[in-house]
């Protein structure tokens, strides 16, 4: 786990290199203080000879602290420099290929050094297909003057960029936006992006001129000031009009093989590794696979001996704690994740395996049922495992009207929007790295995801036949529709969802590693309360945050509207949608104070 910051000045410097060097060093040092939680155990700084480029890297105890492992890393000729956040899995195999195929001489044992090797041999366009893991990096080539900023396929690790407010402006890149504050950047609300949703979706953020490097993309900043965005990976799904030739058993085996391999790779570490175990399907499968790997294959979870046991701890959370986040928090789930993420570090275990990504890849969310049912899946012949004809035919007009789009499209949209910009931020990197805890997401292994995306929709969701099955005789069906439409089994979407088995192929793939109880368990999402007592701690906290002065300081929110929301969001009749507004505006209020953002009206 780690964090990074980079500052690059283009054009001709206007002051002496010694003066510039001191300025760059000062800015990097102050940026470090704001990102210290991302790597509290070591730091490394590099500034080039004319002080036009500076790189800062923060690392934690799970990193290679040898002189050759500390970052920034440099090529043998000292002309290429890189800082990397994250983990490259199976890097020993990559190192072996680099040594054998093009005689690359590695200077240390850091997994990040393979990026230097691959870049020098394959170039930026060819290196990504060799990388497996979660990562973000900044690479600077002295000969070309180009800066490359790249992010992993799903956006597990964050990376932002902007330009300073100084003259001449400097390119700034950091793991978190707060890292820009000491580097000549003046935050301004991007009201248009906030109102249109662009601050959450795509490359936009809450602040003018600050952009994300998109998942599966790299951005090239040229010496001439050009900025070019390139996509190196995207999710591709099976064409359901093409007949599937694999049997269900073959597909289950394919998922199991890749999932076991993904877990195995994420157990490799120089420090202890733990697992978040919620009792649900996803984390239980990860725990079950880990248990088998340790007991039967002798795999060690990090540097722990296999006799070590998993211990569960209770969670306590200070009522007066506040946590600020750039992405909108639509619920309080991140508070629970924030509290949970403190526990591994307290026990001396900086790495944790989690179950995130299973719902996104295997269609585990209830709202995806409608997309699954909307159109038939012609890729897979009907079997008892995948048969859902009765369910589709039984849908009455009321339920059918709620159905909109096909499952692969819904999965793709969710992958590119909510998962990348909310699930992996509020519930992922920010909550975990606030406590210097590194999460590893086995279900977001891209080799596993690519295989799963190529499976027919019907193996992800399956129809569970009710005890009193609906008659298959067409005349009888029509009779039932006319005589007792309200007693019809599939009367509404709630009833439909109750008969759908989600993540079917994952359940089958994970069955050898879990109990029957877990196998048959319905989804119980990790969620926080929506209803809070009137005059309780939550309402009092938000009243303290959303004062007239604080709201008006934003410059684009009406205090009267928020005041009414404060009064109607709590209690038994509280509206979750209203509470969501309070939560989002409260987040803006905290950021306004922490970042010193001027009211939006003063920018017009």
Automatic annotation (TrEMBL):
Binding site for L-glutamine: 111
Residues at the catalytic site: 2 (for gatase activity)
Annotated transmembrane regions: none
GO molecular function ontology, one term from the record: ATP binding
Swiss-Prot/TrEMBL GO biological process terms: asparagine biosynthetic process
Keywords, ordered alphabetically: Amino-acid biosynthesis, Asparagine biosynthesis, ATP-binding, Glutamine amidotransferase, Nucleotide-binding
Record-linked InterPro entries: Asn_synth_AEB (IPR006426), Asn_synthase (IPR001962), ASN_synthetase/amidase (IPR051786), AsnB_N (IPR033738), GATase_2_dom (IPR017932), Ntn_hydrolases_N (IPR029055), Rossmann-like_a/b/a_fold (IPR014729)
Domain Glutamine amidotransferase type-2 positions: 2-224
Name of the molecule in the record: Asparagine synthase
Organism: Colletotrichum abscissum
């Amino acid at each position: 786990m780690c964090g990074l910051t980079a500052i690059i000045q283009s054009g001709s410097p206007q002051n002496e290199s010694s003066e510039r060097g001191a300025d760059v060093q000062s800015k990097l040092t102050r940026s470090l203080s704001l990102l210290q939680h991302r790597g509290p155990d070591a730091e490394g700084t590099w500034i080039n000879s004319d002080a036009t480029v500076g790189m800062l890297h923060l690392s934690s105890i799970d990193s290679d602290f040898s002189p050759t492992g500390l970052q920034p890393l440099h090529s043998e000729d000292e002309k290429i420099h890189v800082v990397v956040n994250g983990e490259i899995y199976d890097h020993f195999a990559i190192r072996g290929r680099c040594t054998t195929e093009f005689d690359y001489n590695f200077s240390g044992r850091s997994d990040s050094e393979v990026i230097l090797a691959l870049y020098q041999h394959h170039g930026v366009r060819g290196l990504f297909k060799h990388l497996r893991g979660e990562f973000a990096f900044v690479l600077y080539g002295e000969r070309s003057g180009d800066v490359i900023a790249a992010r992993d396929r799903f956006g597990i690790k964050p990376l932002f960029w902007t330009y300073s407010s100084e003259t001449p402006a400097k390119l700034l890149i950091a793991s978190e936006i707060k890292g820009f504050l000491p580097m000549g950047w003046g935050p301004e609300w991007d009201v248009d992006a906030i109102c249109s949703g662009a601050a959450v979706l795509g490359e936009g953020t809450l602040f003018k001129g600050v952009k994300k490097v998109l998942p599966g993309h790299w951005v090239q900043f040229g010496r001439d000031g050009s900025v070019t965005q390139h996509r190196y990976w995207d999710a591709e799904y099976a064409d359901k009009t093409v007949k599937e030739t694999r049997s269900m058993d073959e597909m289950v085996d394919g998922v199991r093989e890749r999932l076991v391999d993904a877990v195995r790779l994420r157990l490799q570490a120089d420090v202890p590794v733990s697992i978040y175990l919620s009792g649900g399907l996803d984390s239980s499968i990860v725990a079950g696979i880990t248990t088998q790997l340790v007991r039967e294959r002798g795999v060690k979870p990090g540097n722990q001996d296999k006799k070590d046991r998993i211990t569960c701890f209770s969670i306590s959370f200070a009522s007066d704690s506040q946590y600020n986040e750039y992405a909108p928090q639509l619920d309080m789930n991140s508070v629970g994740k924030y509290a949970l993420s403190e526990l591994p570090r307290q026990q001396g275990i900086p790495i944790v395996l989690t179950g995130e990504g299973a719902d996104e890849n295997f269609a585990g969310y209830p709202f995806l049922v409608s997309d699954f049912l909307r159109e038939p899946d012609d890729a897979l012949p009907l079997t008892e495992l995948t048969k859902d004809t009765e369910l589709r035919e039984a849908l009455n007009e009321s339920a059918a009207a709620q159905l909109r789009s096909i499952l692969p499209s819904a999965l793709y949209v969710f992958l590119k929007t909510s998962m990348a910009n909310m699930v992996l931020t509020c519930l992922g990197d920010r909550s975990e790295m606030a406590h210097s805890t590194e999460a590893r997401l086995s279900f977001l292994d891209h080799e596993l995801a690519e295989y799963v995306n190529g499976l027919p929709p019907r193996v992800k969701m399956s129809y569970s036949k009710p005890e009193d099955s609906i008659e298959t005789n067409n005349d009888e069906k029509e009779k039932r529709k006319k005589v007792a439409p309200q007693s019809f089994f599939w009367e509404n979407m709630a009833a439909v969802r109750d008969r759908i088995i989600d993540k079917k192929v994952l359940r089958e793939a994970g069955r050898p590693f879990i109990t029957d109880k877990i196998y048959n368990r319905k989804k119980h999402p990790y969620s926080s309360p929506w209803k809070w007592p009137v005059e309780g701690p939550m309402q009092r906290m938000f009243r303290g945050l959303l004062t007239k002065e604080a709201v008006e300081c934003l410059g684009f929110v009406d205090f009267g509207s928020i005041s009414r929301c404060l009064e109607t969001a709590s209690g038994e009749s509280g509206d979750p949608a209203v509470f969501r507004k309070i939560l989002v505006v409260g987040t803006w209020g905290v950021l306004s104070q922490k970042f010193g953002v001027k009211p939006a009206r003063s920018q017009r």
